[in-house]
Amino acid sequence: MTTRYRVEYALKTHRRDQLIEWIKGLLAVPFVLHSQPTAVFEPSSETVEQMAANAQRRYAEIMRDVENIVNDHINHQKAGAQDRSKLRLLVPSVANFFTPLALHDAFIWQDQRRCISFRRFVPPSFNDIRLVLNTAQVMSLTRAGPLELVTFDGDVTLYDDGQCLTPDNPVIPRILKLMESGSRIGIVTAAGYTEARKYYERLYGLLDAIHASNLPQSSKQSLIVLGGESNYCFKFAGDSPDLLKLVPRNEWLLDEMLLWSEADITELLDVAEASLRDTVRNLRMEATIVRKDRAVGIIPQPGQKFCRETLEETVLIVQKILEMSPVGRRLPFCAFNGGNDVFVDIGDKSWGVLACQRFFGGIEGSKTLHVGDQFLSAGANDFKARLACTTAWIANPAETVQLLDEIAELDEIQQRKTR
Ligand code: IMP
Ligand code: MG
To answer: What InterPro entries does this protein's entry cite (predicted)?
Structure first.
């Protein structure tokens, strides 16, 4: 029993999103009751269109109900009583919402594209619901007025893992369009470098395109890079050879971040490094330890690929050790699985997004969207951004492009309404 519990706990809970799983469970009921799998071999009195219309109505009703339960949670939040909301009882891990979610309309929107209601054998899936939640979020954001700040993760969100943002990347014209319409852009990545040149090498496609564009100078200034989760800030600078200029920490650090002492930073990284070294030895990993001034990590030796289980084990161990250490309680940190590496960074993306909001004059969480691929509760680094703003959970760079197209389309609809 104990072993089973531990396996469930350690290898499952952190790999599940409770809100999505809960919605998936709710939608499974109409699927079971209304899908008609036997119709593929037995004539049925209902056409597939009738079945789909019926299923869509039932699914959409449930999404409307969930939307209302989220609104009730938001009302509790406003009264400081979110712990007493019905949603919190149903989904204990649910956090705060920065805006309502247009779940009913988003379901219809995604159903028109993914034909969820037409399916007879495959019920609404994790990915269906993840995409409905993304659409619901951007619908609510665009309906409430212009999106003031969009922050993007780097690897897997803007470009494939470990790659660079090259000039042919279809995300570039979409980001330029956002900038043209007045949105500020933050690239909030774990990749932590002290020199502008390194970021230029990763992001040159976008930076060159901004430089060459006919955007007014002030719009060009509306892009910053927050590296190492929340450790290095660079702003766009057309006159610098790398098109980026380091912003001194005293110009962008939040007051709370000023309290992070160098002694604590060194101590936390020492504890993390010792744990990583231990795990590398125990799991016989062919790894190199990388120590930086604000991070420590393990990367594979040339030609090595770590398996998922090894990476997760490494993250969960270092995270637990840091959580239990005195310095880990004083200083925020982020331990995550980067796909074929593990890093522990000082700070996390909630601080990265908050720093971007502050840099641009105090933008609110309800006017900010963070787009990222890592939203599991442990071993993932975009997760913490949920503390600072609304979020969209994408699975690959193509989905980021789709999401930006959705925002543009929804914006267009909104503007037509207000004209
Ligand atoms: P992100 O997806 O943009 O947040 O980037 C994560 C990746 O950046 C990691 O998987 C690492 O490969 C890489 N990386 C490079 N330097 C650092 C660092 O200092 N901390 C964390 N990740 C780093
Ligand atoms: Mg990523």
So the answer is: HAD-like_sf, ISN1
Q: Which CATH architecture has domain 147-419?
A: 3-Layer(aba) Sandwich (3.40)
Q: Would you kindly state where each structural domain of the chain is located, as residue ranges?
A: 4-143, 147-419
Does the C-beta of 153 come closer than 6 Å to ligand 1?
yes
CA distances from 6 to 1, 2, 58, 332 (A): 9, 6, 37, 26
191 lines ligand 1 (CB under 6 A): yes
Average pLDDT score over residue span 237-266: 96
Q: How far is the CA of 30 from the centre of ligand 1 (A)?
A: 42
List the 287-291 sheet strands across, edge first: 287-291, 295-300, 342-346, 333-337
Query: Does 120 contact ligand 1 (Cβ within 6 A)?
Result: no
Q: Please give the distance, rounded to the nearest whole angstrom, from the Cα atom of residue 414 to the centre of ligand 2.
A: 30
Rounded to whole angstroms, the maximal C-alpha distance in the chain is 74
Q: Is the CB–ligand 1 distance for residue 198 below 6 Å?
A: no
In angstroms, rounded to a whole number, what is the distance separating the alpha carbons of residues 419 and 415? 6
Ligand nearest to the CA of 269: 1
CA of 155 from ligand 2 middle (Å) equals: 4
| Tens digits of residue pLDDT in 187-218 | 999 999 999 999 999 999 999 999 999 999 99
What would you report as the CA-atom Rg of the chain, rounded to the nearest whole angstrom? Answer: 23
Residue nearest to atom 15 of ligand 1 (CA): 191
CA of 62 to the centre of ligand 1 (A): 39
The preferred substitution site among 165, 299, 341 for testing ligand 1, maximizing ligand atoms within 8 Å of CB, is 341
Percent of the chain beyond pLDDT 70?
A: 97
Q: What is the DSSP annotation of 129-195? A: HHHHHHHHHHHHHHHTS---EEEE-SBTTTBSTT----TT-THHHHHHHHHHTT-EEEEE-S---SS
Per-position DSSP letters for 39-88, written without gaps between them: GGTS--SS-HHHHHHHHHHHHHHHHHHHHHHHHHHHHHHHTT-GGGSHHH
Any idea which residues carry the catalytic annotation? 153, 155
HEC sequence for 206-270: HHHHHHHCCCCHHHHCCEEEEECCCCEEEEECCCCCCCEEECCHHHHCCHHHHCCCHHHHHHHHH
Task: Tell me the pTM.
Answer: 0.95
